[in-house]
Amino acid sequence: MSDTEEKAQVKSLWSDLALRIVSGVVLAVAAFAVTWWGGLVYALFFGAVTVLIYREWVAMVGEAPTGTPAMTGYISVLGSLFCFYFGDWQAGLAIPVFGAGYLLIARCSYAAARWCAGGILYAGLFGAAMLLLRQDATHGFSAILILFALVWGTDVSAYFVGKFVGGPKLWRRVSPKKTWSGSLGGLVLGTGFSVTVAIILGLQPSVTMVAMLGGLSVLSQVGDLAESQMKRMFGVKDSGSLIPGHGGVMDRVDGLLFAVVAAAVIGFAFADIHSVATGFLIQ
Length: 283
Hints:
This protein is mainly α. It is built from ten helices and two strands, in the order H-H-H-H-H-H-E-E-H-H-H-H. It folds into two domains: 38-135; 138-283, no CATH class. Strands 1-2 form a two-stranded antiparallel sheet. A hairpin with a 3-residue loop joins strand 1 and strand 2. The longest helix has 35 residues, at 3-37. It is globular and about 50 Å long.
């Protein structure tokens, strides 16, 4: 490679990184703002994210955007979000299950319909967890912010540690650029960042909370790898092109999705449905 080509390649890499940083900052500010505001603004923002997740899933698996499987999914996801927003969590959980069941039973003659059934559950769980956690009047805001700090801190730390430290690949076949050093760096720094945010918000992190956040950091990386594997299965580079430098919405929330769903499950195990964030943070 000539000096000119090498300089051009370095310039391109820095240009891509700058675009990623600017897009990431804009997204982070928007997410923080709507989370702080809460209520209908928060529900509409993350409701739109949930619908976009399903839209990208449908496109990725090769299903027609206005076919029966796609429309069944949209109706199921929107119906679920509507019920969760108005406090009917039983119906909110049941609707995606019925929608997915319909596709599996009535539309099971081809693979894309079956994949769309999985997409309904994938997107629906994300929307449900985001709404349930934020609706906790006591710790909803704190829980979402801590999860943002954890997942994004893990992601950014893993990227830079992996880039500058290098070493053995984590799972070359699925994600050729990810390294063990990046994964461990993301775990340590992402967990540390989320604990710092918890302290700033006035919480007293216990050993249990730190261990739990570390586990969710690992789980967020599993979510990233799972989406990478799915993209390889369907031969696509990105889930979409909506976000400059980042690809699609699924590319940005894959790790967050796994973490928030797990956090909501943990919270529900330790508290009632109206205090999911409290159960998550205060065991």
